[in-house]
Amino acid sequence: MEVHLTPDQKAFVRQAIESGRLHHEEDAVLEALSLWEERERKREELLAFIDTAETSLARGEGRILTEESMRQLAENVKQRGRARLASEQVPPR
């Protein structure tokens, strides 16, 4: 397989080799492919999550979020956090 880079890309790879970041030109392609694979894995996970969420909504399991419901949720989280902190504190001697 041949890969053709633009002059800017070639200069970028050359700079990485000169700085010691990469050892060979092929390393740049391998790293780019590795990053692309990771991005595609994350994309697939996100799409699966969206599918699950859409299925859940279709079953009527969704929740309508309003400004008030978000305030209530935030208050609930704060109260639980404060209760947890209070229960973890060691009484003074």
Structural features, described:
By secondary structure, the protein is mostly helical. Helix content is 73%, strand content 0%. The radius of gyration is 26 Å and the shape is elongated.
Helical element count? 3
Morphology call: elongated
Tell me what portion of residues adopts beta-strand conformation.
under 5%
- Record field, number of beta strands: 0
Mean pLDDT: 93
The low-confidence runs, each spanning 5 or more residues with pLDDT under 50, are none
Major sheet summary line: none
Helices and strands: which structural class? mainly alpha
Helix content, binned percent:
over 70%
Which H/E pattern describes the elements? HHH
Q: Compute the gyration radius: what is it?
A: 26 Å
